[in-house]
Amino acid sequence: MTMADTISSDLNSPDGPFWHRIQTAPIDCGAAQQWLSADIVGAAGATVLFTGQVRSEQGQVSALSLEHYPGMSEKVLAGLIREVAQRWPLLRALAWHRVGDMGAGDAIVVVGVAAAHRQAAFEACSCLMDRVKTEVPLWKKVSGPDGSDWVDARDADLAAARRWHDSGEADER
Amino acid sequence: MTMADTISSDLNSPDGPFWHRIQTAPIDCGAAQQWLSADIVGAAGATVLFTGQVRSEQGQVSALSLEHYPGMSEKVLAGLIREVAQRWPLLRALAWHRVGDMGAGDAIVVVGVAAAHRQAAFEACSCLMDRVKTEVPLWKKVSGPDGSDWVDARDADLAAARRWHDSGEADER
Amino acid sequence: MIRILFFASLRERLGEAEVTLAPAPELKTVADVRAALAARTDGRWAELLSVEQLLLAAVNETMAPPETAVQDGDVVAFFPPVTGG
Amino acid sequence: MIRILFFASLRERLGEAEVTLAPAPELKTVADVRAALAARTDGRWAELLSVEQLLLAAVNETMAPPETAVQDGDVVAFFPPVTGG
Question: Which CATH number belongs to the domain containing residue B146 in this structure?
């Protein structure tokens, strides 16, 4: 029950409109973009893809290790996608999050959406990412020349996530 | 001087931080994402990539043809990237726009940025795209079962671009 | 000479992509050039270049409002509002 | 039994990833479970689970405020604020 080292089961799938995944394997951002764009009916005019990568912080970070709560992390991720897709008219949405050990420059997370129009795509992707940061049970530990330590949650991230609550969604639940 | 059918010269380059391109060849969105993420110093924590694709509009659009003003379109695109990079701290930015003939589902444009933090990346990418839509000399003509016609400019696009003027940039010029 | 370019629907409806005008004392601005073109009586010039039409202009590849100065050797372009992206 | 999981820095500092508590009349809520754990006198339980520590909780893989009911067979998890993305 320490660091998750298994690829979680995919109840969702690349064949449906939503695709979430917690994975130890490196994230293939190109594959994510390709899947988002592959809308056979041609109804998607816009895709927005966000990637978060390990920053080296001027050499202070050489490695990053991500722990999650297996089972719950997948469930929360799937729920966030569903909620965001209820608020904006999305044709496709994905959220892939890596766990385990990675190094500077590696992709930690990729979040993307496809929609008919760009405004909805930008807003939905931004909202989904803000909520992934603050609601999915994932914890970062960074290692550098001075040893390793757990990353503290940032107030700025909580404030960013609250923006979306104030303007609708959460109020309706 | 009708439809541009040449790939414009690249005064900018993949080796620098900014990369704009007007091209007749299909756009490779995966390559765009890869270039954005390839930040060797590891200072970029976030990338946001937008793609605009030809929508079929329930079969009303079978083909799209894009005309541009060769020379001016490249110049304006380069200028927009520079302006956006002055407003947000970007590590990389690209804007590739296709011209000529394309079909439903094809990528028309890809715009992307890399930054240390995600808020800046989302805002800069959204601003750059809004300005590309309203300032670069490009014109769409769509063909469908009922013939072909030029696309009218949308008030919503002008309003979207004005958002960024109201909140800073243009006021400072 | 002043080179004048037309793009997109304007080019198509005029049936011309490019014309030239000899520099003249009364051609001081973009608005003057447009008025000179609209004064042509052949074809649809008067209609398509009239001030009622929503057109943009550029001088030497830079967006130019009607009052922008024009001189010998300049390239002036007229086109409808842009629709890229 | 009630299964209790710990994650990240909390797991590391406690030196435990999982414990179990026998159901009891006084263990009605998440807050009760936390208080029972904080009452342990061995190691750093009192310090790390005290109400002063900012911790989140989940019951059966759903985020749960302190007043959430807990019953026999539930899985309760405690962890620090999340830092993914």
Answer: 3.90.1170.40
Nearest residue on chain B to C81, judged by CA atoms?
B153
Residue type at B135?
E
Q: By three-state DSSP, how is residue A89 classified?
A: coil
User: pTM for this one?
Assistant: 0.91
Residue B135, domain member (yes or no): yes
Sequence-ordered alpha helix ranges (H) in D2-77? 8-14, 30-38, 45-49
Superfamily of domain D2-79: Beta-grasp domain (3.10.20.30)
For chain B, the residues whose C-beta falls within 8 A of a C-beta of chain C are: 1-2, 52, 66-69, 71-72, 75-76, 97, 108-109, 129, 132-141, 150-154, 157
Q: If you ran DSSP here, which 8-state letter would residue D78 be given?
A: E
| Domain layout of chain C by residue ranges | 2-79
Most A CBs within 10 Å, among B34, B53, B128, to test the A interface: B53
The pLDDT confidence band at residue A40, using thresholds 50, 70 and 90, is low
**Considering only residues 8 to 37 of chain B, which have any Cβ-Cβ distance to chain A shorter than 8 Å?**
29-30, 33-34, 37
As for how many domains chain A has, the answer is 1
Q: Tell me whether residues C83 and B129 touch, CB distance under 8 A.
A: no
pLDDT at B67 over 60: yes
| Terminal-to-terminal C-alpha distance of chain C | 34
Contacts of B70 in chain C (CB under 8 A): none
Report the complex ipTM. Answer: 0.91
The reply to whether A6 falls in a domain is: no
- What is the DSSP-derived secondary structure letter of residue C80? P
| Residue A136 distance to chain D (closest CA, Å) | 7
- Rounded to the nearest angstrom, the gap between the alpha carbon of residue C7 and the centroid of all alpha carbons in its chain is 10
For chain B, helix (H) and strand (E) counts, in that order, are 5, 8
Record the tokens describing residue B83, joined without a space: 């302006």
Q: Give a yes or no: residue B172 inside a domain.
A: no
**Residue A2: inside a domain, yes or no?**
no
- Dump pLDDT digits (tens) for B129-157: 999 999 999 999 999 888 999 999 999 99
* pLDDT on residue B38: 86
| Dihedral of alpha carbons B49, B50, B56, B61, sign | negative
**Spatial separation of the C-alpha atoms in residues D3 and D17, rounded to whole Å:** 11
As a whole number, mean pLDDT of residues C37-54 equals 94
Nearest-by-Cβ selection for A138 from D11, D63, D82: D82
DSSP C50: S
Q: Please say whether the beta carbons of C41 and C29 come within 8 A.
A: no
Tell me how many residue pairs between chain A and chain B have CB atoms under 8 A apart: 112
